[in-house]
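To whoever is on call:

I kicked off a structure prediction for a single chain this morning and the downstream step that reads the tokens threw a length-mismatch warning. I double-checked the sequence; it's 320 residues and nothing unusual in it as far as I can see. Pasting both halves so you can look.
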Amino acid sequence: MEKIRPVYIRLLTIYLLLSGTSLAFAQRAYRHEIGIKNDNDVYLLISQDQYYTNGVQFYWRQAFDSTKLSSQLLNGSYEISFGQNIYNSNSAQIKWLGDVDRPITGYLFANASVNKFYSNGTMFRLGAEFGMIGPAALGKPIQQSFHDIFGLYPTAGWEFQLRSAVGVDVQASFLHTLFRNSSQSFDVALQYDGSLGFNHTGLLASPIIRLGNINPWHQSAYTNSRITSGIHGAKREFFLYYTPQLHYVVYDATIQGGFFLNNKGPVSGRPETWQLAHQVGLIYARNHITFNLHYIFQSREIKTMYYRHQYGSVSFMYQY
């Protein structure tokens, strides 16, 4: 709890400093968006480097042609992304096989999806993801190069990583608004995410609570829907959000190894069926720019993990 409290204090301080300049007004419309997201436990500022230790993802989005939208469909977009996640054990300097408490691997992936936003306050997303694990995911050379460039400690333990495998997943998400107050400063929604395939299969349920200067879901930075081909762009946003998550895991290739492999690698395991997480963050969006900072606190992904895990995430989007 002592690690979590400073994170909330930092978020609240930033929010109070900037809230005085977050008045809403209509802005120019932009149809396209590019962006980058980085997940890393270094953002916690507690000298932690373990488990899901780094993730980088790049995005491109294009809004639907507004002249072809129906009265029920308020906005929509096409999205393409690609990136890499790196998973270590309890340390990035593992010397012995017996010290591996979480399977080690990279996860290299590409994703394409369609997102639709409706007048009844719902959102639907359908996508597909191609991904690979093991040496083919380039986790070892990327992590070692990063540590060499920035003069960090040498990594060890990659000889124990999972074997290379590839897989494809089909993904779907559904969001439904439960409540929004009359002043448009507070709302609650419920989102369901599902994945079915050979890398990730499972369900995720997460209430979403937003407080501050918020837009409807079809024009919000939270749902990456500020882009539009219409005349009027999204208003400025600045808000705090909190999302508790319940995850039902059927298959996770970063823990269990390749779906079709008999020999998964030196260390593989079975993930916890039910996993919990808490996500708290803030978003600031104005004109071309969207900035998102949040922290994730997770339960153990697998029983053998020595510790629960937490990390920070920073994303930057540019609309044009």
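Update from on-call: the warning came from a stale cache, not from the record. Cleared it. Sanity check on the structure: Residues 107 and 133 are 5 Å apart (CA to CA).
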